[in-house]
Amino acid sequence: MIRVDALTKRYGGRTAVDELSFAVEPGQVCALLGPNGAGKTSTMRVLVGLSKPSAGRVGILGEPVGLGAAVLSRVGVLIDGPAFVPHRSGLANLRLLWSATRRAWPPPALDEALALAGLGEHLGRAVRRYSMGMRQRLALAQALMRDPEVLVLDEPANGLDPAEVRALREHLAARARCGGTVLVSSHQLAEVQQVATHAVVIDRGRLAAAGPLAELLGGRSLEDVFLAITEGTADAAG
After folding, report:
1. Domain total for the chain?
2. Which phi and psi angles does 26 have, rounded to 5°?
3. pLDDT over 70, % of the chain
4. CATH number for position 201
5. Judging by DSSP bridges, how do beta strands 55-60 and 198-203 pair with one another?
6. What is the pTM of this model?
7. Has residue 237 been placed in a domain?
């Protein structure tokens, strides 16, 4: 469902991602983990066609990815959030974003996405009046409303309260049980440990560890394993 092969991404003389390879299969919720600056967001941006790789290849659903690739219509993306029009309502923004697909309104999973977002009457309010958490929930709604086969989410729980985080966790787990694929980056390690089935850990742009989460943990907490891997201890791989 997701494949990254020897991906390298450079910004001038700085290498953000260095020959990174991993795969995510159907039914998996894979956590992409690493310290700040490890290359997580750069990897995700290349994966969904927002940035070009310097070397290597990426693919989703067996197809190569680039800007405007047709396969991206089957992918829900949350990276930095979409550029909402502040003076328009939440619902009007969703309609505007959907219009880019050139498909008839409403999207196939709009009701489910709005239920998870829980914005209710606020959907009719101008986005400029939204709190950070409300903007995040609207961003999640736009990622989910197309009923994607693959989800790529960068820090999706930012600004959400505990109940909203729990609802998101349950939604991602249910999607995976139905054969969907989720790649999620987050610094909330305790939350990740409750939902992820697999993990990919990168450090300074390189792969540090990857595999089923239970095997990586080996009875330890994800925080302990994460620190061991990124600090380079001998038993990091579990």
Report:
1. 1
2. -55, 140
3. 97
4. 3.40.50.300
5. unpaired
6. 0.92
7. no
